[in-house]
């Protein structure tokens, strides 16, 4: 799929017409046309050049919104949850646009998460070939040494998958409690990556946060708070995604 393409039901949802599931129902029941032709299949992909109408009303492209969110622990990185647990969109009830997270943070992980309604922007940042650095701070069980963590710099093999090299810095150790605080910088987005990397080396993660994403930090925010990204911050992220300095 090209970066400028998206599935029809997603385009309808992103325009704020309906949820993704309701959009699928609208398509299946013949309420949607693409360039004047009724479409009832779910696999159709559209671009900004296609004219999509729902019940004869053209989709309007929403204004792109980008937010920096301080995700608290105990919150699901999703727009809904079938177990009725708190999700990240619960903190954006005063924002009219339909937002979704860029990437994810685990339920018990706090830190910087981007929220947007801009699918192209999200795809740019999440694409595997892009190398935007993500900075984590982990409290781990055990007292790691530089030698013990050295495999991180070469790239660990975790669950049969070779991970990209990571940078680390041992911030502090507590010999009495047998714990340490370690800073880790990665650019991949594999599920549970940081936890699995430390676990593989014998240092289970007790607490994890992400204080920085690329050039962005959580300065000035408390857990559960958010702010709009500044235009220069959006531009900086796009440049990083394109491999520009």
Automatic annotation (TrEMBL):
Enzyme superclass (EC): isomerase
GO molecular function terms listed in the Swiss-Prot or TrEMBL record: isomerase activity
EC number assigned by the record: 5.4.99.-
Tagged with keyword Cell membrane: no
RNA-binding S4 domain: residues covered: 6-69
PROSITE patterns noted in UniProt: PSI_RSU, S4
Keywords: Isomerase, RNA-binding
Pfam families tied to this protein: PseudoU_synth_2, S4
Listed PANTHER family: PSEUDOURIDINE SYNTHASE FAMILY PROTEIN-RELATED, RNA-BINDING S4 DOMAIN-CONTAINING PROTEIN
Similarity section: Belongs to the pseudouridine synthase RsuA family.
Protein name: Pseudouridine synthase
């Amino acid at each position: 799929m090209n970066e400028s393409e998206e599935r029809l039901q997603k385009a309808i949802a992103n325009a704020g017409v309906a949820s993704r599931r309701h959009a699928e129902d609208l398509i299946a029941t013949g309420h949607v046309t693409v360039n004047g032709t009724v479409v009832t299949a779910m696999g159709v992909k559209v671009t900004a050049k296609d004219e999509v109408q729902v019940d004869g009303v053209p989709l309007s492209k929403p204004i792109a919104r980008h937010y920096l969110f301080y995700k608290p622990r105990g919150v699901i990185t999703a727009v809904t949850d079938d177990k009725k647990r708190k999700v990240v969109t619960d903190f954006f009830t005063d924002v009219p646009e339909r937002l979704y997270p860029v990437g994810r943070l685990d339920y018990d992980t706090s830190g910087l998460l981007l929220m947007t309604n801009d699918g192209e922007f999200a795809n740019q940042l999440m694409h595997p070939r892009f190398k935007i650095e993500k900075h984590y701070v982990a409290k781990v069980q055990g007292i790691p040494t530089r030698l013990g963590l050295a495999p991180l710099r070469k790239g660990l093999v975790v669950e049969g998958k070779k991970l990209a090299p990571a940078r680390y810095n041992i911030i502090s150790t507590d010999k009495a409690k047998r714990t340490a605080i370690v800073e880790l910088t990665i650019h991949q987005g594999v599920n549970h990556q940081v936890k699995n990397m430390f676990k593989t080396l014998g240092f289970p993660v007790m607490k994890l946060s992400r204080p920085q994403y690329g050039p962005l930090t959580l300065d000035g925010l408390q857990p559960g708070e958010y702010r709009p990204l500044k235009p220069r911050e959006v531009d900086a992220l796009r440049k990083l995604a394109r491999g520009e300095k």
